[in-house]
Specification:
Layout: E1 2-7, H1 16-27, E2 32-35, E3 42-49, E4 52-59, E5 62-66, E6 78-86, E7 89-93, E8 96-100, E9 105-109, E10 114-118, E11 122-130, H2 131-137, H3 141-144, E12 146-149
């Protein structure tokens, strides 16, 4: 099992965002990460065992984007299941556009293009789970690919 616990606080300001990008790609999913604010800070605690991964992170504003499947993703089909703890997130995948608030749960197909924008400080839990497991338990995901469960129903 691979484990990671890091904070950008120990990294020079000019390298913080690159350090964060590497941690996200290694422990959650390979994506493009774009800085929104001049000053960036973040921390993450994560574990990964093969296709299974789980991360708890806090960060200042940024955007995560995946425009297409990458060669490195081939055969590694996963769904990302996230729980919004603090702050908001703006999620886009296929026809789904949703604002995630604290208590929201989102499931997205990590093989498909997506974007998640964090307009302010955010805290989230994210799990990476194999497609076969998710679609066997939740067969509608094979057709819908993304779903959001809001705390108020």
């Amino acid at each position: 099992m691979e484990m990671l616990s890091m904070s950008t606080a120990s990294v020079s300001a000019q390298w913080r965002f690159d350090f964060w990008r590497e941690a996200v790609c290694k422990m959650i999913h390979v994506v493009d990460v774009e800085q929104v604010e001049q000053t960036f800070n973040a921390s993450i605690t994560a574990r990964r065992h093969g296709p299974l991964g789980c991360a708890n992170f806090w960060s200042t504003a940024h955007t995560v984007r995946k425009d297409r499947e990458r060669f490195s993703d081939t055969g590694l089909g996963t769904y990302l299941v996230s729980c919004q703890i603090e702050g908001d997130a703006l999620l886009e995948q296929d026809d789904l556009r949703a604002r995630l608030r604290p208590g929201s749960v989102a499931i997205v197909d990590a093989r498909r293009p997506m974007q998640v924008h964090f307009p302010q400080d955010v805290r989230r839990l994210v799990a990476s789970l194999p497609v076969e497991l998710m679609e066997r338990r939740l067969p509608f995901l094979a057709r819908k690919h993304a779903v959001v469960l809001q705390p108020d129903g």
